Amino acid sequence: MGSRRGRHHGGMPDGADRLHALDLVWLEMQGEGPPIAIGTVAVVEGPAPTDDELLTMVSDRLDRMPRLHQDLTDLGVGLRRPVWGESGNLDLREHLHHVDAGVAGASPGLDAAVGHIMEQSLPVDQPLWDMWVVDGLEDRWALVWRVHHTIADGVGALILLGHGFDVEPEGVQTLADALLAGQSPRADDAGGTPRQGARPVPGSNPLTIANDIANDLGHSLGRALGALRGAAPHVIPAAAALIPRPPSPLAGPVGPGRVWVSVDISLAEVKSIGRALGATVNDVVLASVAGGFRDLLVHRGEPVEGRVVRNLIPMSLRPPGDDSAQNRLSGMLGNLPVGIADPVARLTAVQAGVGHAREAGTPVLASALLGLVDRTVPAAVQDAAVGAVGRSAPAWFMDTLTTNVPGPQFPVYLCGGHVLAMYPLIPVAGHTCITTGIFSYDGTLNIGVTGDADQAGDVEILARGIHRAAAELAELAGQAERAGQAER
């Protein structure tokens, strides 16, 4: 797809749904490589439906998934952002493909098939999504459903594609409707990053502050600074993570090949660790990812003593009930202390680092800055800036990205089949060679690790290390609980 900006459909439509600055990043960063697409890898029990059955399901629900029948309208000028408009060329069969897990790669199986799919381009003259049926899995099948990151962030993709999943085999209510109706668990319970910025500013509404700064800088900057007064003790520690440093060996130019590895962790086990050691589910997950990176670096023969891996944590700023598909996210940098060998001490360090970044309000300020740029800087200037620094500058601030999205803690169904697992599909791009996605579903943390095939073809070590680190914490948490019971 390259840096395609959309077809020219004429003048500005009424009530235009314009592409925003953050959305543009995903288009420009991919260059001529594989698409920066996100989505889900749904593993389903039983035989796969026919193509007609799958396409009929999509067609019947297409009005609930507007981005699947829209594409970008180029206004023909460089000063205004393209807008989303109805596609005049939608052919659902162009979006459906098959791959046999038995022949997908050197190591056949679901993981190899997903890696192969991630290398494939999206339709050039169609709306920016596709779906792949993975055949050749014993007693099950899988659907890899991708949308370009320009369309949605992780939570937006869950709502958008959630209209293709049901909360009962008969298909009476979709997963998206159930989530929007409030049946989704609390983020801390589900293993995700708490929504609305994870309390980045005590006593404030981060969405209000971010939007106010972008719309009325003079008035609301003072209001935001006042709200941030209580965060002052956290600002200096959080700011340390924002200092640019030369790219580490974990970063490098991303090529066309992809490796994807899946792993599962019991959510009940992670919650038990949190209770015993006084941590949130999210803290435990990040500490486990840190342990996985420690294993990866040791495997590569790199020193780990005193080292941290600089990690970007996307955070949703989506208000409850928002069913739009667009990107509504910010992020914060939280170092992964891979230089700490003791698992409990590593967990404590993760808690401190993420806590400082959260309470300092960095997600809110980052969102406000993006909003201000989007409203005040001409699109042509934004395009030039993204093209000049978007592919390489992030490597001076981050080594990797870890995203944790809370999902439903009840079973869901696809075309009547029971969904056994739902793994997040997270791309790599620019100089970020490794990403980790965590999705909590029906009592399990389904984890998908993506690596650039040339720079990070060994991410299986990371994925298995995440599982090992969580098991190690579980053992230590069990010992702490037994010791506490003995004292009582």
Structure description:
This protein has 488 residues and is of the alpha+beta class. The chain has 2 domains: 10-184, Chloramphenicol Acetyltransferase (2-Layer Sandwich), CATH 3.30.559.10; 190-406 and 426-487, Chloramphenicol Acetyltransferase. 38% of the residues lie in helices and 20% in strands. The chain is built from 15 helices and 16 strands. The chain has helices at 21-29, 51-61, 110-118, 154-162, 175-183, 187-190, 206-215, 217-227, 232-240, 267-277, 281-299, 343-359, 362-376, 379-389, 459-487; strands at 7-8, 17-18, 37-45, 70-74, 83-86, 96-100, 129-135, 140-148, 258-266, 311-316, 329-333, 400-405, 413-414, 417-425, 434-441, 444-452. The strands form 3 sheets. The protein has a 6-stranded mixed beta sheet, with helices on both faces. It has a 6-stranded mixed beta sheet with strand order 9-16-15-12-10-11. The longest helix has 29 residues, at 459-487. The radius of gyration is 22 Å and the shape is globular. The N and C termini lie far apart (64 Å). The relative contact order is 0.17.
Give the structure's gist in a few sentences.
The protein is α+β, with helices and mostly antiparallel strands.
The mean pLDDT is 79
- For the record, the CATH architecture of the largest domain stands as 2-Layer Sandwich
What is the CA-CA span between the terminal residues? Answer: 64 Å
Determine the fraction of residues in helical runs and give it as a percent range. 25-40%
The domain tally reads 2
Q: Work out the radius of gyration.
A: 22 Å
Number of helices: 15
Q: What is the number of strand segments?
A: 16
Strand order of the largest sheet: 6-7-8-3-14-13
CATH class of the largest domain: Alpha Beta
* Contiguous runs where pLDDT drops below 50 for at least 5 residues: 1-15, 75-79, 184-221, 360-365
Strand content: 15-25%
Query: Major sheet: size, sense and barrel closure?
Result: 6 strands, mixed
CATH topology of the largest domain: Chloramphenicol Acetyltransferase
Q: Name the shape in a single word.
A: globular
Secondary-structure content class: alpha+beta
